[in-house]
Write a structure and sequence with these properties.
Length: 68
């Protein structure tokens, strides 16, 4: 998992990714691995609905999904 990325950099990385609901899959039998979690950057976890970047272990395609 990538660390030490700013919120601005994270938002730039996810702007072209498709949304995938939590627990959905890309390929039929593939696992989805969390690659990166939206940084908090001083925001309260109770006030922020965080997202994450997930990657299909079979085809390698990345998506943005809900973290919380």
């Amino acid at each position: 998992m990538t660390n030490n990325i700013s919120l601005t950099e994270y938002n730039g990385l996810i702007e072209n990714l498709s949304f995938l609901p939590p627990f959905d899959r890309c390929c039929e039998e593939a696992e989805m691995n969390v690659v990166m979690v939206e940084p908090l950057n001083g925001r309260n976890t109770m006030d922020v609905d965080r997202s994450c970047v997930v990657q299909c272990s079979q085809c390698g395609k990345q998506y943005v999904s809900q973290w919380d």
